[in-house]
Design goal:
The structure is a homodimer of 315-residue chains. The first copy, chain A, has two domains: 1-106 and 298-312, ornithine cyclodeaminase, domain 1, CATH 3.30.1780; 114-297, Rossmann fold. Chain A has helices at residues 6-12, 15-30, 106-123, 138-147, 163-175, 186-192, 233-238, 247-253, 255-261, 273-277, 299-313, and strands spanning 2-5, 34-35, 40-44, 49-58, 63-72, 83-91, 97-102, 131-134, 155-159, 179-183, 195-198, 203-207, 217-220, 229-231, 241-244, 270-272, 291-294. The longest helix of chain A is centred in the middle third of the chain and has 18 residues, at 106-123. By secondary structure, chain A is an alpha/beta fold. In chain A, the strands form three sheets. In chain A, strands 10-9-8-11-13-17-15-16 form an eight-stranded parallel beta sheet, with helices on both faces. Helices cover 35% and strands 28% of the residues of chain A. Chains A and B meet through strand 3, strand 4, strand 5, strand 6 and strand 7 of A and strand 3, strand 4, strand 5, strand 6 and strand 7 of B.
Amino acid sequence: MRVFSKAQIIARFNPELAVSQLEEGFIAYSEGKVQVPPVQGFAFKGANGDCCVKSAYIEGSPTFTVKLSTGFYDNPSKGLPSNDGLMLVLSAHTGQPLALLQDQGWLTAMRTALAGRIAARLLAPAQVKAIGILGTGMQAQMQLEQLRAVTDCRQVILWGRHERGLAAYTAFARELGFGVHSTQDAAEVAGAANLIVCTTPSRQALLHSDWVQPGTHITAVGADAPGKQELDPALVARADRIIVDAIAQCSQYGEVAHALGSGQINAHQLIELGTLLAGRAKGREHDGQITLADLTGVAVQDAQIASYALAALCT
Amino acid sequence: MRVFSKAQIIARFNPELAVSQLEEGFIAYSEGKVQVPPVQGFAFKGANGDCCVKSAYIEGSPTFTVKLSTGFYDNPSKGLPSNDGLMLVLSAHTGQPLALLQDQGWLTAMRTALAGRIAARLLAPAQVKAIGILGTGMQAQMQLEQLRAVTDCRQVILWGRHERGLAAYTAFARELGFGVHSTQDAAEVAGAANLIVCTTPSRQALLHSDWVQPGTHITAVGADAPGKQELDPALVARADRIIVDAIAQCSQYGEVAHALGSGQINAHQLIELGTLLAGRAKGREHDGQITLADLTGVAVQDAQIASYALAALCT
């Protein structure tokens, strides 16, 4: 088995190639051509930590993948990052372990950012006035990097809770060539931007329905576990198109779960990203519509990005 | 993260130390002091293969473990072993991956053999006349090696389907100091031995109830997945004590599942090995009783043997 470090993985990673492999994964998932066993979860209460194991095989693929990701939220006080993770790639022909990708969670962050890019390509309005970003962490950075490929807009309006995070992100975004306005008032983001990406671990709605302009597309990636929420359920209900990465998973703990739970939407309104990518559902039809992509993160993304990364490392 | 090979693991492995850690694991499991998420399973039909991911955390342990094991049954025609596997050990304090144990399935085989040893220590009759072994593979070898620690008996009666396997195992057992009689008639094993270990991947009963003598202890480790079976359900029903590693799992696919399914036993007859080890249930009471240990293999065994192996490697 070959072992690769995060630095090696990043050095050989080309998002333009990875994104099409991710699209194939979403399509296969929505066509049922995958094996995705139930997620394994651990909670380490004393250590304020958790771990999940996500595994997937896409029928016909030469490999399958098992991913571990951990979040230990007291780690920063020990000088360690909160998140860590790795992926194992095995042969679907012989079962042999082929590679250990010690990406420390980077591939998970990247596959999430690439899913946001796919959603924006399919659903953003033709004219993006400004890009709204909620959150100032690594995922907020990676989402913005990826959006450059799908819009010419270079204006960002940024929301965060802390001046320090806002300042650091502002410097990052300017470096990428963006004009940046930062705020601690999320209503201001909704008033200025018509392509909004929510990337926080919030446990209550940050973005309210009556703030959001017609024609806006919103991608929400924060609600990746029960209890998390970034959007007002009324905003979910107001959306003309609700795209999810996985109906089963989003119904459990995505933004969509809150709106389903309160009866504000029906399950039949949900459209999987793979169904949209395959052309078997309608996306945005005009620039007055509100569209939403609720992305909780699915194991087929891990399998596809690991497969791509390994191929890139071995060529 | 440190990476260890099978050879390194074997070189530092002391079964006498590992066995007590396994016993603690069984006890913790039966006391509910563990986190054992659902097993993840894959089937690779075209390649005649499967993979399962078993993970466990024992409350209070400094580590937790994720184990992958694969069986690809056409591999021998490619010059590869059918089974492979590895274990990942992570910190339960920080989530950091600590070690990759590239044991290629050896630790799984060893923890299974050690469970057989524990069962024999607790349940075998006082005078073992002969040890019966069904099967001639690696697990059959490891079970016999481990039984040396719990009985003075050095007579083996061996059953297998093929002359070649019988001859190889006979040579192995003689090397260990055993007298060996081999046969292709399982009734002969039951007639001569009163400590019998069944180690085959059979899908139909090999050992019939009316062959078995009073006072016999039987350990069955082959039925580790749905459809597998080594014992006549009537033999399970005839046992005075039915010990299982995990009631939930054995009820699904152990030997016990067949006898439960046909109504020949009741679930309340099942006693977990951890309950027996903790002294909270009775084992064998006299040498006329038939006892059975149905061992399907549980993730706490993996967690405990990985934890032990890592400690041994790091000291």
